[in-house]
Amino acid sequence: MRMPEPDATTLDRRLSVVHELRRMVPEPGGVIHDPDELAVYECDGLTAYRQLPLVVVLPQTTRQVAQVLKYCHETGVKVVPRGAGTSLSGGALPLADGITLGLGKFNRILEVDLENRCAVVQPGVTNLAISTAVAGQGFYYAPDPSSQIACSIGGNVAENSGGVHCLKYGLTTNNLLGLEFVTIEGEVIRLGGKHLDSPGYDLMGVITGSEGLLGVVTEVTVRLLPTPATARALLMGFESSEAAGDTVTAIIAGGIIPAGLEMMDRPAIHAAEAFCHAGYPLDAEALLICELDGPEAEVEHLIEQVAAIARGKGANSLRVSADEAERQAFWAGRKAAFPAVGRISPDYYCMDGTIPRHQLPHVLGRMRQMSAEYGLDVANVFHAGDGNLHPLILFDANRPGDLEKAEAFGAEILKLCVEVGGVLTGEHGVGVEKRDLMPVMFEPVDLAHQQQVKCAFDPRHRLNPGKMFPELHNCAELGRLHVSGGRMPFPDLPRF
């Protein structure tokens, strides 16, 4: 995995950069440049790759963010935006010649507007804090990544995060109403607001999921939803992952859209049960957790339908939550599955790819074959309802060659996702992890058009370089007119 070569000129003027940042962000602790303190920021959740940043700046106001970005634009210094650092794709991996711009001090909920069913928050607010703040009024914020206790809403916007309940309620992009956004030139732009839809181009949709390559979000207006009247969860155990996958397909094909539909295989079940004591069936090879919510009568009817489908597909155990405490217990194991798996392996590599639901049995079977070929075990924990896979490849980084095998195994899984009609990522983003696999999914012309969007926002490539694009072209190169066989494309069009 290669990153852009550090610019020697920038490295030589490091002290000058620190001085200028202190002038823009004078508060104590606003600028960090001591090597020991910089180590805190050397990586994000993808810990396989580490790099000390040139310097870290922690602004507290939108004006300070704008000043820092304008300075970087004008002086040629690269900048890497960073939220809580929970990204699993290396999206916040620092650059040796770049400023890491941390948004941890943007941590206030600015307004809760229940009449308009929205909240205005700063990007450093954690995902779970939004729901906690409005739970007493009977509302919540729907997207709920497993890291919701720690991940920030700004990072959720950057990666277009999902979570357990995205099957019914959508990803981050489906739950945003407005953004305040700072460009690399230091311009502050407001997109959307408290209203449902905005006129014109969907620039908010462009920014969401852009992984810090287009600018920095400094304020977010999110949609709040009323807490469902009733929510029940079913635990369904199966003798094979294929049978569980078939059940997922049958549930959705039957016109049922659960609030959440998650799957775990045997290694993940045992790890989560030992960690949380959620009451999972330890004799199952695969476990489905299906949550149904809405009016009580509707939920009871859907429980019967889902149970019938599961039994028809060979479920060997079925349990329905009796109360709210038990429902929460069912989800506690799923939410804690990633740290729980950390107890059974020295290291693991968390992948993220999405496939058509009907391909679940085939892909899970193929992953088992790959596991034998690479000699590395896999624990599967994923959003089965929308086909978003999160296989955890188990390895030991202290064993020579294990990390490289895990990376190669992960790449094969992602290639398989694309091969069966899926995509490289569902919610973790591309970052550095999947950057060099982008040509597996996109043709050169597709990547060129994506980079032209990057050029429109960041023509000098100051923002988060080395991420997402396997080869970053100069904007002037992308704008050149390609002539083939002496003929210009579309010769009938007038040219200016």
From TrEMBL:
UniProt keyword Glycosyltransferase, yes or no: no
Domain FAD-binding PCMH-type positions: 49-227
SUPFAM superfamilies the UniProt entry points to: FAD-binding/transporter-associated domain-like, FAD-linked oxidases, C-terminal domain
Record-linked InterPro entries: FAD-bd_oxidored_4_C, FAD-bd_PCMH, FAD-bd_PCMH-like_sf, FAD-bd_PCMH_sub2, FAD-linked_Oxase-like_C, FAD-linked_OxidoTrans_Type4, Oxid_FAD_bind_N, Vanillyl_alc_oxidase_C-sub2
Keywords: FAD, Flavoprotein, Oxidoreductase
One MF annotation (Gene Ontology) recorded for this entry: FAD binding
Cofactor: FAD
Name of the protein described by the UniProt record: Glycolate oxidase
